[in-house]
Amino acid sequence: MATYTVFITLSDSTLQSLYAGKFWLRVYKGITASAPVVNTVWYTTNVFSSTVQIQWTDDYYGFIYPGVPLTKGTMISSGPLNAIQPGNVLSIGPAGSTSISTIGGNANALTFVNNSSNIRICGAAQPVNGNPRLYTAMQMMGSGTNVAAPKELLLLVFETGEFDAGRIVTRTLNSSLQINMMSSTPVTIAFDYQNSWDTNGDPNATILPNSISITGQLWSQYNNYIK
Question: What is the pLDDT of residues 90-102, one digit of tens each?
Fold first, then answer.
């Protein structure tokens, strides 16, 4: 099991401004998937200190839920999460029961199979700061199969307004920072209320100064022919 850690350093003046402005830190996570996805808030907090820690592991979970509109603002309720490994298949039957198989999956990816005629949604979750939380979802047609390969790509943004984890969000409103964790070596970045983000010279971190499409930044197409 690999553990990944990002530290965000905040100055005293930035802390005061974040609290005065009632800001929240929101974290979104990347995925490579065979179908278009939506991103949900993976982790969020309005409790800050001079160093904010985001820590997660490569323990993977999958879910298959009843179909709901995957539109901006929708809350994907946190139902059962199934521990699953890359190469495994998570299936749902006509009666709604799920099962996991180690046979027939795609290497380095999670496979979801809908053995019912009902439209479902499926997606992935990982533990962040100690709690498994979903971070993406996609629609599953009846008798359909979706494939998703998690990637350790994060998008961080400070914004006003409380969005619970699991809520679909389509765009950032403020400048954000994307970081691609190429290893489990901890990374330290900084945020200043007046001057935005600072990568501290990390070559795998990128400042995104404008409002962006979250999914456009974090989703990439999975090649179904890779087994």
Answer: 999 999 999 999 9
**Cβ contact 42:133 at 8 Å:** yes
Please state the pTM of the whole predicted model: 0.96
Taking a C-beta distance cutoff of 8 angstroms, is the pair 165, 43 a contact?
yes
CB atoms within 10 A of CB 20: 9
Q: In whole angstroms, give the CA distance from residue 190 to residue 212.
A: 20
The CA distance from 155 to 86, in Å, is: 23
Between the alpha carbon of residue 186 and those of residues 42, 48, 109, 183, 197, the distances in Å are 19, 19, 25, 8, 17
Token pair belonging to 120: 């479902």
For residue 150, the one-letter residue type is P
| φ, ψ (nearest 5 deg) of residue 226 | -85, 120
Torsion of CA 106, 58, 63, 121, to 10 degrees: -70
